[in-house]
Write a structure and sequence with these properties.
This is HTH lysR-type domain-containing protein. α1 packs across α3 and α2 packs across α3. Helix content is 45%, strand content 23%. With 303 residues, it is an alpha/beta fold.
């Protein structure tokens, strides 16, 4: 069987439509459909069936789609072995990373990647709900995702997941706030404030919900944004308080706002790398991951 046609089944399983597969692979929908029909004839069984105006994989189609993952991973491992034997690595690595992690990790990562001149990095900002990061692995080799401490998002079973670091979350207060002089604050101390928050179901929002549950008071969120520098400016100007990631925001706090750890609640976010197994096996991707881990280690050392 043709491994490229086999890979189409996997793309269809992950993307859900022939149109999406065609767009991702730079083909026409008719060309994708033709290759799928050719594969069905070769296999002698129905792999794709119509449902309404779309299509879906049959049980046989899903079985072959899962096999294509193992085939692609084996090929990538063989290529990585050969690349290591030759003593180098080359190619383009596409990375998706959310804003604050990019601020924390990307400058140092790019400095480290100078040691690998054959690898070109393409880095894109992607800040989505923690349940939506897994879907980005269809289009990116490396996806840097975040999640709440004790929440495991869905759709990760078939992915390679590598922990990078745990970043504590602190309460940001204006310099003249009555609680600014305290070394720590509790959820009950601050839950009644106006809050500068993030979109619902982002890790920082889940911690704020946990604070509300513990204090028995719903948090009043007056502004939601994923842009941490804006959040910091709003706090510094006295428009509310916020939860901020410690490593990312600490260097900008001096003279503008204070960060205070929470008592009585474990507050943090997990930063992880998500990858398709075959892409994780690529030599260039593994080298990027090594450098990411090294850069994340600097932040962990500050803990």
């Amino acid at each position: 069987m043709d491994i490229n046609q086999l890979a189409l089944l996997r793309e269809l399983a992950e993307r859900g439509s022939v149109t999406e597969v065609a767009y991702a692979l730079g083909k026409t929908p008719s060309a994708v459909s033709q290759q799928l029909r050719t594969l069905q004839r070769q296999m002698g069984t129905v792999l794709v069936e119509r449902v309404g105006r779309g299509v879906r994989l049959t049980d046989a189609g899903h079985a072959l789609a899962e096999s294509s993952v193992r085939v692609a991973t084996a090929i990538a491992e063989a290529e990585a072995t050969w690349s290591a034997f030759q003593g180098g690595a080359s190619g383009t690595v596409r990375m998706a990373i959310f804003y604050s992690a990019a601020e924390l990790l990307v400058p140092g990562l790019l400095t480290r990647m100078r040691a690998h001149p054959g690898i070109a990095m393409e880095i894109s900002d992607r800040d989505v709900s923690q349940d939506d990061f897994a879907a980005l692995t269809s289009d990116f080799d490396v996806v840097v995702a975040h999640r709440s401490d004790d929440v495991l998002p869905p759709d990760r079973e078939r992915l390679t997941v590598v922990p990078l670091l745990r970043e504590p979350l602190d309460v940001a207060l204006p310099l003249d706030h009555p609680l600014a002089s305290r070394p720590r604050v509790s959820p009950a101390d601050v839950i009644g404030e106006d809050w500068i928050g993030v979109p619902v179901d982002f890790p920082l929002d889940r911690v704020l919900q946990a604070m509300s549950a513990q204090a028995g008071v719903a948090a009043k969120v007056v502004h939601r944004t994923t842009h941490l520098p804006l959040t910091e400016k709003l706090v510094a100007a006295g428009h509310g308080v916020a939860l901020l990631p410690r490593h990312t925001s600490l260097e900008r706090a001096s003279g503008r706002y204070v960060l205070r750890p929470l008592t009585d609640l474990r507050a943090g976010r997990r930063i992880e790398v998500l990858m398709r197994p075959d892409r994780a096996a690529r030599r260039a991707v593994s080298l990027v991951l090594d450098e990411l881990l090294a850069e994340a280690g600097l932040a962990n050392a500050e803990e």
